[in-house]
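Protein modeling request. Please complete all fields; requests missing the sequence field cannot be processed.
Requester role: graduate student
Desired output: 3D structure, token encoding
Chains: 1
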Amino acid sequence: MAFGLLSRLFGRRKLPAELRYEDARQVLESHQLEVKRELAGREDAPPEALYYLACDDDAGVRGLVAANPATPMQANELLRTDADAEVREELARKIARLMPDMPEGELTSLQQKTVALLERLAEDELPRVRAVISRELASSRTLPKRLALRLARDAEIVVCGSILQYSPLLSDEDLIEIVATTRVRGAIEAIANRDGLSGDVAEAIVASLDIPAVAALLANPKAEIREETLNHVLARAAGIEALHRPLVMRTDLSLRAIRRIATFVSRALIDELSRRNGLDAETSQWLKARAQAALEDEIDASRHVTVEAVRKAYAKGDLGDDIVTGAATIARREPVVTALSLLTGVAAGTIEMVLDAQSGRGITALCWKAGLSMRTALAIQAHIAHVPSANLVLPREGFDYPMSEAELAWHLQYFGIAPAAGPA
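Delivered output (424 residues):
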């Protein structure tokens, strides 16, 4: 009865433009999936029908009900614990988009229930559901402060990142506290990218010694970086190449800072400094001389860093970070491979395999086994293996190996290398 009636009423299973209660009832009785899905997405569907469809066996139907602004609160509450993550995502997206329309003052009973539902969704076990709320409400001023803080302190960067970067509800005190306590990789970097970042927060980021975050801070033209804070960066930046370009590109550098930076960056970056506006004649001339000296140093280093030189240094007991980092920095792959092979006792072919895999962790473990520093490991990752920036293994606190000995040994074993202890 139902299927024939629906075919005559709706034609090709489509609902009429003006939906009547009787039409909705007949859809529910028909159990036809296509029209149930259409009804689930209709904003003029009766609340009772939407509540009924919230319990449907088909996740697609429930997802449409979850996304429907007309769905009654009781059905929303039911869908909050739906077994299908995509249904909960649709619900989170819809509820989050209702927030910007809410007043900042006293809320009605329905609005209070909406906020309560949003807070429960923000506790969902799946990060992807919580992340929907974070992305949708990152810039909201009507989001309850307690919820903004909860999202900002989430253990997953996919959740906390948007709030940390964009939320206007987080005070400097909140941000400084998070910088000091977070263990989420990328969280401090998200804060460093905020518009109008204050000098106090910038100082806390520099003190964290989180290299990607400090690089992001330097690259942020809207961040206030006090001279004292910049001096703290300059004191450590010589051996941290990830900071060189962001430093050079700062537009608020003093002449003193420009000269100091030019003592440790590459010739190409010195040339970049020399093209800045506002340089006096003396500084311009000094930079040209420094660039020429850097060029001569590069040529000289290229001539002297050979496989034979590496072997001789090893025989004398002089093969270490200076030679290996120098070879890596000028992209001399063969001397680097030879050095790692000699220092670790691992065949050169295996070293080549690790480099070709662009495994930042594998290269780091090799350097640890070789007794080299984490800075050398970073130079080899960047200049020899060309590890993508997102996969670079960075020094902890600017200097130390960021992995435990057990982790380092595991990555060696992954490549079939015996994990003999090396100094970290």
